[in-house]
Structures are given as C-alpha cells and as structure tokens.
Input
Amino acid sequence: MPQPSSRYLAEGPRVGIRHFTHEDAAEFTARARESKDLHRPWLFPPDGEAAYAAYAGRLIEDPTKAGFLVCAKEDGGGIAGFVNINNIVEGAFRSGALGYGAFSHAAGRGLMRQGLDLVVGHAFGPMRLHRLEINVQPANTGSIALARACGFRLEGFSPNMLFIDGAWRDHERWAITAEMRP
Output
C-alpha cells in the first residue's frame, strides 16, 4: 500500500522544511512583527501583506532564489523560521548564498539548527549545489553560532559588504561544500 506523501521537502525529528507559498502571508507576517526585537539590527523580514507578497513572489518565481520555511512539528507545522538560498548559480560554480532567521517563539529551541541542516542537505542533494555561503555581521553571535554548529567554516572578512539598516556593514564569510558534509 503506498505511503501518503509528506507535506515537507525534507524532515527531521522536530521540523520539516517546505517552500514558501502566498498563503503563508498571515502567519509569516504576524511572526515577523512579534520578532522585531530579536531580528533588529540584523534582519528585516516582511511584516505586512504587500511586502510579503513581493518577497514570497521573488522566492517562488525567481530561479536564482529558493525559499524554505522551517516548520515545527510539535507546533502543528507552524512556521518557526526561514532559510533562503539567494544568488543561485548553476554550471561549474553550483553555489548559493544563504540567509535565515528564527521567529522569537522558536528561538533557542534548536529548531533552526535542524532546519538549516535540512536545507543544506536539500541544496546538496536534489538541488545539486556544491557550495553554500553565509555572510554574517561579526556582532551577530547567534547567527555565527548557528553557522558553526551546522559545519560551516570561516573563510574571510568582507568590509562594507552589504547595505543594511542605512549603512554599509562588515561581514564574515562562512561556507560549506558538499564534501564537508558527514
């Protein structure tokens, strides 16, 4: 007898990952509004319906992007956070740049570690990427700890790399390749 298909692209004991949909707007934006104190000054996810529609639309329609929602099984599949792969390049490079964030109700529970591991596995498996990079502001210790816990290695420092919250910000570059995965 065939097994019912999972609603997730990949799943672990506590979380599953799935793509963004336009129908996630209300839950995602409510979680973003609740999490402003956690995210600032590092991250500015969309917290309104129109901003979410544009954001999710890019992740859904642009082949150089892939967006994943980290959903907590213990919370009935509620959105715990997100991981996006941006600047996907195929061909000989097969690379992408990661961005991610937990929502405050899920922070510190280990859900994002499992979710990021699942996204990395999906990127190196079905997506056939070879390298993923995370660019993190040096004072964002939580994000650096997550990158390190998931096996990323520090590769360098980029002064004035990204324009965030009104200024050019320095970033550390963390990366992982398919060969580095256990």
Notes: Helices lie at 25-34, 36-39, 49-61, 111-124, 141-149. Residues 111-124 form the longest helix (14 residues). The CA atoms of residues 8 and 127 lie 15 Å apart. The chain has a mean pLDDT of 93.
